[in-house]
Design goal:
By secondary structure, this protein is an all-alpha fold. It has 4 helices and no strands. Helix 1 crosses helix 2 and helix 2 runs antiparallel to helix 4. The radius of gyration is 14 Å and the shape is elongated.
């Protein structure tokens, strides 16, 4: 998922951040409702794949709202 930060430069941080949060939410709900170990593993992998979008993109997105001269 190393291409996610590059996508933020092309499409904007807000849209990529919202998309990864949506996928992360779906993966978390699927993980909670899952009764199968194999399905749970798939949701955990999907959840792990959203990490760059949540952490890297989210941090940079938040930093855009902070004043530069603090």
């Amino acid at each position: 998922m190393s291409f996610v930060p590059a996508l933020t430069d092309k499409f904007g941080r807000k849209y990529i951040f919202c998309a990864t949060m949506l996928v992360s939410t779906i993966a978390q709900i699927g993980l909670i409702k899952s009764n199968s170990l194999n399905v749970s593993i798939c949701f955990m992998v999907l959840l792990g794949m959203t990490w760059p979008g949540k952490r890297v993109t989210g941090l940079n997105y938040i930093l855009e709202f902070l004043p530069q001269d603090y």
